[in-house]
Amino acid sequence: ESDTASEISFQFNRHKKTPSIGSHSSDMASVSSVSGSVLSVYSGDFGSVDAQGTVEFALDYDEKNREFQVHVSQCKDLAVVDEKKGRSDPYVKTYLLPDKARMGKRKTSVKKRTVNPIYNEVLRYKIEKMVLLIQKLNLSVWHNDPLGRNSFLGEIEIDLASWDWSNRKLNWYPLKPRSLSAVNGVDHRGVMSLSIKYVPPGSLGKWPKNPPSGEVHIWVKDVKDLLQLRPSGVDSFVKCYVLPDTSKKSYQKTRVIKRDTNPVFNHTIVYDGFHTEDLKDACVELTVWDHEKLTNHFLGGIRLGLGTGLSYGISVDWMDSTQEEVAFWQEMMLATNEWIEGLLPLRSL
């Protein structure tokens, strides 16, 4: 039923030793190196002040250097965060949406004890003009807290497709409350169609049909509505790990589907070495990536497991499956030897 297949042995070494928390964190750093930047636009917002004031900036595109430039000049009449001391320590942050993880954030320096900060700084993005024109600029102002409890002070969002690029002058813009479109734009990453099956040890009769240990089968069918990073689409592929194992033995991937935001992979992966009790401590992580020569860019992913936060008695941040993902995994555990079909939204990991 699938045009490609992979089969690898997956051993948990349950009776040898329990891996340390430190080893988990170092392994995950190699697997999800961009996960630290794939957060909500409003991550770290602990403030409750109302947006007010204005920001002065200008936009330009340097054709020669293929560089998008945001000239941040100053802000006026920002909200006061610390009312007792009558102060705010503001800075300006920018993202390109919808995929802020790809281009990353840029931010100015922090200006202390002022609601009228002057920056005169340029935030730069190396990006092709055609790609830029399918993005939105999210520019927000924040109060910087020494303990990381930053407060949102206001924002503006600009559709760069309709921007007047002949306008290179500094202009004033009113700061607005949080934009729902910015949050939704980041969160929607596409939907993966897949099927999974668990084959318990000894469930298929006598050898050679009978697997000496349990097997988890993962059939990655297709993905719909991926983020379009280029006018021509994306060159996508899917990575798979069974956590907590992030070794090369656990790593599998599909072929690359070029120039398509609705790629069909039709790829099956089989992991053996599974005992039934392992299913409550393991987690299948499927991530979708855009392939480029120098680096691959994270598009979204899912984690299939029980979402308990624990793996073999150790607290881990990757055991964070959503309700939909948990229900999918539980259905597989109950209906052994049967393909369980699912349609799951991709998310930030």
UniProtKB/TrEMBL annotation:
Record-annotated C2 domain positions: 51-173, 188-319
Main location: membrane
Listed GO biological process terms: exocytosis
UniProt keyword annotations, A-Z: Cell membrane, Exocytosis, Membrane, Repeat
Gene Ontology CC annotations of this record: exocytic vesicle; plasma membrane
Listed InterPro entries: C2_dom (IPR000008), C2_domain_sf (IPR035892), SYTL1-5_C2B (IPR043567)
Pfam families attached to this UniProt entry: C2 (PF00168)
Subcellular location: Cell membrane
Coiled-coil residues: none
Key word Transport present: no
Domain of life of the organism encoding this protein: Eukaryota
Molecular function as annotated in GO: neurexin family protein binding
PANTHER family: BITESIZE, ISOFORM I, SYNAPTOTAGMIN LIKE 2
Protein name: Synaptotagmin-like protein 2
Organism (species): Rhagologus leucostigma
Classification lineage: Eukaryota, Metazoa, Chordata, Craniata, Vertebrata
